[in-house]
Amino acid sequence: MAEPATTDQFQRDLWRGSLALAVLAALTDGPQYGYAIQKAVRDASHGQLQLNAGTLYPILHKLEAQDAIRATWDESTGRPRKWYRLTAAGKRQLKAQSDGWRAYAAAVEALLSPRPA
Amino acid sequence: MSEHEFEAYLNLLARTLRLSPRQRDRIAGELRDHMEQRLDELTAAGVERHDAALQALDEFGDATALATELSDSAREKKRRHLMQTTFATAAVAAAVTLGVMYLAPSNYQGRPSQPFAAADQAESAPTPDTARTEPAPQKRVDARFEDSRLEDVIGWFADQLDVNLHVDWNVLELAGVERDLPVSMGLSDVNTRVAFELMLRTLPTEARLSYEVVDERLWLLTTADHVRPEIVSRGYDLTHLIELRRNEILDRPNPRSGRSGRGTGMGGRMGMGDMGGGFGMGGMAPESFAANDRSGSASHGDVSDRLGAVIVDTLPRDTWMLPGTGVVVFDGVAVVRQTEANHREIEKTLDMLTMMLKHRAEELRDATATPSSSDMGELDFRIDELSGLHERLRRELAKVEAAADAEDGGDPAAARLQQELDAVTKEMDRLLTKRYELQRLLLPREETAAAR
Q1: Could you give the C-alpha distances from B439 to B344, B369, B434, B444, in angstroms and in order?
Q2: Which domains does chain B show, CATH number per domain?
Q3: From first to last of its 117 residues, what are the pLDDT tens digits of chain A?
Q4: Count of H helices and E strands in chain B?
Q5: Which residues share a beta bridge with A83?
Q6: Chunked in runs of 10, what are the mean pLDDT values of chain B (452 residues)?
Q7: Which pLDDT score, from 0 to 100, does residue A4 have?
Q8: Of B339, B346, B341, whose CA–CA distance to B313 is shortest?
């Protein structure tokens, strides 16, 4: 369901492992609703990373159940809208996962770099 | 077009969500908001409205899979919430909100109609009015006590319930239940009888209290050991099952059989609480089962016989040794005299049997049939039935789990219920997926062509 721009299995696996990280990251600048999160992920990655609705909402609800994000309903407009924001726990999770991701990326990068013989 | 598609999808999803109506509405509302925005975006980018709708829907993927994931998250959230609340409050809240219907004791007629009866009754030949009992009014009260004396609390409940509540203090005091045992509870807007039972169950004492409805307005409150299990007569309409089974025997699947004729569906309880005696068959063995069926073909009687045997075999043999118990099948209706708990077992067995026979009948039919819009109606009908059954199992499971929580121990009944629930969920998922596929097949193709 979550299809990055390339359908390569390796890319898909990478993406699947970082879905929650992507959603948390999209919330760093303040509360957002589902559709805007989807768009933020797509735009920030220049269309490379796409979160389909069928993938996004289960993640949002799961993160909410884990108290990493909290939701409020805005009923003031004609169309009720559910807004999500990071909790303290969510911020910690984002920090830990970002650090983990960077360390991992650096390690893989080092592994791939040409080394003196 | 798109509106219709969206709503169909959301309906399908909402039906599969095993959540409260409020939670379902919330989830449907959130997804609708998303779909509408996506649709706006796509049409703004020049995509035809019809195609945009299909694409937006496509991005949501399979409705039943999505519903399953969202349900899981909602339950996880609830579990966490309950863990944060104090333990006692959580157990009470769960018992009250989820267990209301199933805490109701023997002879209680106020339950909702059974799933397989509900949809059928409108079309079927009416059963005699005398065979039905109106649901008892469910009076709701605020039950708040702070270290009140047990005797006073019982008096208060007797007033609220409008019954003579005779308390067997001799037995209770021997069991260590004193008149001034402190009672605390803080419930608002709850069914009086449910609150009363909850109060009995949660008393700070080892003794298990229960009550017996001696007469409509006379209840006896004593320990559980001293309450006689009450034997209740209940009618089960088996015509639906007989029909299903007969079709199978004759190898002539007839998908409409369940919806026409006089079938009032399975487990259609008719509340024959006062039918009197005459059915006593203590110690009856399945082999000696006598079917008084005179209504038609040989196979009809044969199937009746075997259904009677199924009812007998559902319960441990010694439950039929209780005086006053028994089964009689007459003209497709089984009249069973058993305790309330055993009636529930029988209902479950018959429900499962219906589900499995339907499943088989459908598989036979699928082998030959081509899809048509009438299949959709049939599917909807079955999904409705199943979701009723699902709901009932779910509530019962919640009740059992809440009780197990309160006693701080596992319950084998919970595992068994969970198994049944899983089977029903699986079947429902299968049907919903099928419905979704069918719906796609039945999309007006010329409209698609025109949009391109």
Answers
A1: 36, 16, 8, 10
A2: 2-77 (no CATH), 85-135+230-440 (no CATH), 140-226 (3.55.50.30)
A3: 444 445 578 888 888 888 999 999 999 999 999 999 999 999 999 988 888 888 999 999 999 988 999 999 988 877 889 999 999 999 999 999 999 999 999 999 999 987 765
A4: 15, 8
A5: A33, A72
A6: 71 76 84 88 88 84 80 76 50 47 38 33 34 49 86 89 88 88 87 87 84 81 81 83 71 42 36 35 37 43 76 81 80 84 85 82 68 72 83 84 67 80 84 78 54 50
A7: 45
A8: B346
Inter-axis angle of helices B2-16 and B21-44, nearest 10: 150
Q: How many CB contacts within 8 angstroms connect chain A with chain B? A: 67
Buried b / exposed e along B278-293 (16+ C-beta atoms within 10 A): ebebeebebeebebeb
* A54 contact residues in B (CB cutoff 8 A): 59-62, 65-66
Distance CA B4, CA B88 (A): 46
> Residue B323: how many CB atoms within 10 A of its CB?
9
Q: B26 with B74: CB under 8 angstroms?
A: no
Running DSSP on this structure, what letter comes out for residue B19? S
> Which residues of chain A make contact with B66, given a CB cutoff of 8 A?
54, 57-58
Q: What are phi and psi of A4, to 5 degrees?
A: -70, 175
Compute CA distances B49 → B10, B34, B200, B225, whole Å: 19, 16, 61, 69
pTM comes to: 0.38
Q: Residue B156: which H helix or E strand, with range? A: helix B150-161
ipTM (interface pTM): 0.84
- Residue B196, CA distances (Å) to B161, B211, B340 in order: 9, 10, 19
Distance CA(B390)–CA(B386), nearest Å, equals 6
Cβ count within 10 A of residue B370: 6
Which chain A positions have a beta carbon within 8 Å of B69's beta carbon? 58, 61-62
What pLDDT was estimated at residue B410? 60
The confidence score (pLDDT) of residue A39 equals: 92
Instruction: Tell me if chain A has a CB within 8 Å of the CB of B3.
Output: no
Q: Give the number of other Cβ atoms within 10 Å of residue B169's Cβ.
A: 14
Would you list the DSSP string of B404-426?
A: HHHTTS--HHHHHHHHHHHHHHH
Helix (H) or strand (E) holding B333: strand B333-339
Pick from B38, B70, B76: CB nearest A35: B38
Q: Identify the pLDDT of residue A62.
A: 92
What long-range pairs does B130-133 form, CB within 8 A, spacing at least 24?
A: B131/B235, B131/B270, B131/B271, B131/B272, B132/B270, B132/B271, B133/B109, B133/B271, B133/B273
Structure tokens at B281: 């068959």
Domains of chain A, start order: 9-112 (1.10.10.10)
